[in-house]
Specification:
By secondary structure, the protein is mostly beta strands. The protein has two domains: 1-55, no CATH class; 58-147, Immunoglobulins (Immunoglobulin-like), CATH 2.60.40.10. The protein has one helix spanning 8-20; strands at residues 58-66, 76-77, 82-86, 92-96, 102-107, 110-117, 122-123, 128-132, 137-144, 146-147. The strands form three sheets. Strands 1, 2, 5 and 9 form a four-stranded mixed beta sheet that branches. β3 (82-86) and β4 (92-96) form a beta hairpin. The chain is globular and about 50 Å long. The termini are far apart.
């Protein structure tokens, strides 16, 4: 059962981490504490089962692929891909995927356009639009499906 203020996305991430045997310390620390526990690097712990959030940011996570989504023909991980983010107010940021194509980027709330480059000339045919909310995590699959020959 969710406590007041506890996000469904974070709860689902914890459940996935537990079911996969992953350490929950790998979850993004955006300042939200657990039930009666301590918060992430910038957050306080919950009190009496209420989650306290002191962050002013949300988090975009995902995995970058080349050619097709996971399971598709010729789909490969886009290791060390550059992730390009922009908002309509002109704010732009760059992020980087790790060797496994995973990325985790803290962002101010709002709607962000997400695209990038895999480093070999492949880009996404269309930027994805994601809405980031404070203390929430949005997870996407980014596919670089247009490659310079």
């Amino acid at each position: 059962m969710l406590s007041p203020g506890r996000s469904i996305a974070r709860t689902a991430a914890v459940l996935v981490s537990i079911s996969l045997g992953l350490a929950t310390a790998a979850l993004p620390a955006v300042g939200c504490g657990g039930e009666g526990g301590s918060g992430g690097a910038s957050g306080g712990g919950g009190a009496g089962g209420t989650e306290a959030c002191t962050s002013t940011k949300g988090t975009l996570t995902g995995t970058a692929y080349v050619n097709a989504p996971p399971g598709g023909a010729n789909s490969t991980i886009a290791a060390n891909a550059e992730i390009t983010l922009g908002r309509s107010d002109g704010t732009s940021l760059l992020g980087k995927a790790d060797a496994d194509g995973h990325f985790e980027i803290p962002l101010d709330p709002g709607t962000w356009s997400v695209n990038g480059d895999d480093g070999t000339g492949c880009i996404a045919s269309e930027a994805q639009q994601v809405t980031i909310e404070v203390c929430q995590t949005e997870d996407i699959v980014l596919v670089f499906d247009i490659c310079a020959g």
